[in-house]
Amino acid sequence: MSFRTTTDVGYVEDVSPGSGALPPRARYASSDAASLSLNGSWRFRLSATADAEDDSFTEDGYDAGDWAEVTVPGHWVLQGDGAFGSPIYTNHLYPFPVDPPRVPTENPTGDHLRVFDLPSDWPGLSDGGAVLRFDGVESCARVWLNGTDIGEFKGSRVPHEFAVGHLLRPAGNVLAVRVHQWSAGSYLEDQDQWWLPGIFRDVTLLHRPAGSVLDFFVHASYDHVTGEGTLRVASDVDGRVRVPALDIDVETGCAVTVPVRPWTAETPALYDGELVTEGERVPLRIGFRTVELADGLIKVNGRPVLFKGVNRHEWHPRTGRALDLETMRADVLLMKRHNVNAVRTSHYPPHPAFLDLCDEYGLWVIDECDLETHGFVEQDWRDNPVDDDRWTPALLDRAARMVERDKNHPSVVIWSLGNEAGTGRGLTAMAEWIHGRDSSRLVHYEGDIDCRDTDVYSRMYAFHEEVERIGQGLDGGTHKRRRLPFILCEYAHAMGNGPGGLADYQRLFEAHDRLQGAFVWEWIDHGIEHSELGYAYGGDFGEELHDGNFVCDGLVFPDRTPSPGLVEFKKVIEPVSFDGADGSDSRMVRVTNKQDFADLSALAFTWAFQVDGETVATGELAVPALAAGESAEVKLPEAPTGAPASAETGWTVRAALAEDTAWAARGHVVAWGQLPVGSRTLPSLSATGAPVVEDGTVTLGPASFDARTGELRTIGSVPVTGLRLDVWRATTDNDDGAPWQSDVRHGVLWRRLGLHRMRHRLDAVEVDDGALTVRTRVAPAAWEVGLSTVYRWTSDGDRVQLTVSVTPEGDWTVPLPRLGIRFGLSEADRVSWFGGGPGEAYPDSRTASAVGRWHATVDGMQTPYVRPQENGARADVRWAELGGLRVEGAPEFWFSARRWTNEQLHAAEHLTDLVPGGTVWVNLDHGQQGIGSQSCGPGPLPQYFLNAAPTEFSFVFTATD
């Protein structure tokens, strides 16, 4: 005999999208109808299984006085200091056995209870009805109001509404919601993010007066030939559409054509309007624009667009995916200020307010459905729900709830079926439904490799060489695919230090019309604020399955501080470029407007002239209001006179906002370029001082050395320790690559070869009339390869010069991580340098490094990647000063300084593992290996490899104290 004694929870494993919810409809932020937010503190009870408790808590009079409290919107695992369970992070593995649609018996279930009264000004209960709206619940919810079961639903990131007017009473309304962490819907929500159960978006009660607005569709197209827009608002309820600025007042369903300013991401012109029905007035924000596939390109308002985009998960380090409006606004403002023009809402529709902000400030949007079944790849996609007809209603429901909710946003130009869900009939059904419902936008899905159902050829992490072949039309594939535009929906994996290679990709995008841009993966590190670790990532909560810090792969850190990767991206995609003009006149600069629509009239241009990195003169630069895509040669003024003949000179040209905008203040720099004029004279000295040996010490000018080992002890009064060749760096996430990748992963090879444990053999210490020479061999244990290294010291009496000669020995089959010298200083804090700055740079991520005079502290030179790794190098350094020393390089060098060794940095798992010691360790590098984006993508291009080869470089040291 089989029997159950608890509440029926069969709906949890039902593949249907749910029951009881109203059909999806357009969302609007406000109207003149009454509404009541039910956000705030809710009573909460957590159970270990779906059926542990009955539904008596839904009834009047239930005593929940001993329940805990949680904040809604919120995730219960991020509240209660661990009392309500812990977050789980997996990239694609399901954290439960794969047996669709079954889920584990152990299924954390949160009962939520809210008792509320209607406001005193709420319309009478006989006046119309009411709708209860949930904007986001993970992953399955059942809802009761005043003891009546009104339905259950799945689809965590799409809205669900229920008719509840007949159940309301003036006071003492009992809203009960049972939320299950796992459900059949979880199989459709295997996105690369934390698994976080809860009611994480708004809960709202909406009054629905008689004759109120139901669904409506704003059709607002733009004819780029005539400059006219055509508006037609289709509405389920008859009414009128009014747009005062355009003198429009027409019935719903009627089309009207008038001259308008078009909406684009660069010029987001919105017209305020109103939809008026018998019972409600709904504000409209109307943007006129036309999206089409024409001439094999994505065109908006008749012009091709180039996406300079990011993938954006919703994230806050304390509240997870429960975001407030100001956090969303912060994202949009950061994007605009860093020249980002597009967002892919990976991998689900965002909070609806985010799209309002995209409309207002101007961002192209690929709106993506709440669908990913990536974990089925582990079984060759067997039983994948998207190819199982039983699941198709759930897929169509998710597509419809996205499209209907977001269809009136001009920023949304492409619908995406989802992400990494394999292929199948369900996806085809989704594409057919979307095409039929909204022919004014394109449909995207990266997994549709032959573009059978989609309008865009999309890929992830394609290498530069392949992208170039696609741009040239040499990629092959079906006839349909070869006629379609190409985007990289994910590229430049921004995990840790990186991504490298952005500029190389951008050159390809700008060279080939078919390549219509890309979206960096991703916007923000999903670190969870942690009292002991700083920010936690996968595995820090004891998960049995996890993917470590793969969840921290963003252009901004968890607190939304821009990373060096975002600064680099801003420079790479800047809307104006400055190049030296053809010919010998160094005062001519070619200015190019790289925007798709806007001219340069909104920008003001300035010049600055630098001598040895110091600005000696500035002024305004007259640049014509070039139309999008146009270039012009502009002449700079006469260079100021008086610079020493040996000085390095050059121009810096900047484009900044001429007036305040909605997203940045007047003077905000959107683009800059540097044009060299006079080149640098390399430092050198004449060896006039002879080394003196006395009492075990060699003295050479201002420097002293150990006579037996040749090791540097002091320069002037500054103690120096441990100066030696250094080839190791704390491997970056991109050095280490991803375990599933079949190509070469240099971080793994470096450790296998032992480059992190190099031995330094002393072969000879030679003192002659003009120099101290130390001969060594630097090599890893167990291998024959090595680096024959000679340190030659000379002095002119006041300064000391080190010339390092390196000769590889053996068969070096891998590039080096770095090549330079490292030494320790007992005291150092303030740092000044002439070279690249202000932030870090590496060979394939140095576009944003501007040559100048820079100042920082040792601590300020560190980049706080959530998982510590190589960071903080400054590029093209001519000289640096710290700790009482001045160092000049021949040639320019890479410079970094930190309060721990590279080995300690490599061993750290979190920033809190790094404990400052009593020594500041300085690296002066002749070379660095490129970064790439191999954490999920290509490694560095070959031109950024630091191959072992005979090398010589010099440094001149001067004591400044």
Describe the model.
The longest helix is centred in the middle third of the chain and has 15 residues, at 392-406. The chain has a 16-stranded antiparallel beta sheet that branches. α1 (325-337) links the parallel β26 and β27. Helix content is 10%, strand content 37%. α1 runs parallel beside α2 and α5 (464-471) packs parallel to α7 (502-511). The protein is globular. With 961 residues, the chain is mostly beta strands. It starts with 17 loop residues before the first strand and ends with a strand.
User: What's the number of extended β-strand segments?
Assistant: 58
Q: Please compute the radius of gyration using only Cα atoms.
A: 32 Å
- Unreliable parts: 1-5
Structural class: mainly beta
Instruction: Report the average pLDDT across residues.
Output: 97
Distance between the termini: 90 Å
DSSP helix fraction = 10-25%
Query: Describe the biggest sheet?
Result: 16 strands, antiparallel
For the structure shown, list the relevant keywords.
961 residues, mainly beta, 16-stranded antiparallel β-sheet, eight-stranded parallel β-sheet, 11 helices, disordered N terminus
Write the layout of secondary structure elements.
Blueprint: E1 18-19, E2 35-37, E3 40-49, E4 68-72, E5 88-90, E6 106-116, E7 129-134, E8 137-138, E9 140-145, E10 148-154, E11 160-163, E12 173-180, E13 193-195, E14 198-199, E15 203-208, E16 216-223, E17 228-235, E18 239-243, E19 248-251, E20 256-259, E21 271-277, E22 281-286, E23 291-294, E24 297-300, E25 303-304, E26 307-311, H1 325-337, E27 342-344, H2 352-361, E28 364-368, H3 392-406, E29 412-416, H4 425-437, E30 442-444, E31 457-460, H5 464-471, H6 479-482, E32 486-491, H7 502-511, E33 515-520, E34 528-530, E35 534-536, H8 564-572, E36 576-580, E37 588-593, E38 603-611, E39 614-621, E40 631-635, E41 649-657, E42 669-676, E43 692-694, E44 697-700, E45 703-706, E46 712-715, E47 718-726, H9 733-736, H10 746-753, E48 758-767, E49 772-780, E50 786-795, E51 800-809, E52 818-825, E53 830-837, E54 850-857, E55 874-882, E56 885-898, H11 902-907, E57 920-928, E58 951-959
Parallel strand pairs: 26-27, 26-33, 27-28, 28-29, 29-30, 31-32, 32-33
Antiparallel strand pairs: 1-10, 2-15, 3-4, 3-6, 5-13, 6-12, 7-11, 7-15, 8-14, 9-10, 9-12, 16-17, 17-20, 18-19, 18-21, 21-22, 23-24, 24-25, 34-35, 36-37, 37-40, 38-39, 38-41, 41-42, 43-44, 44-45, 45-46, 46-47, 47-52, 48-49, 49-50, 50-51, 51-58, 52-57, 53-54, 53-55, 55-56, 56-57, 56-58
Helix pairs in contact: 1-2, 3-4, 5-7
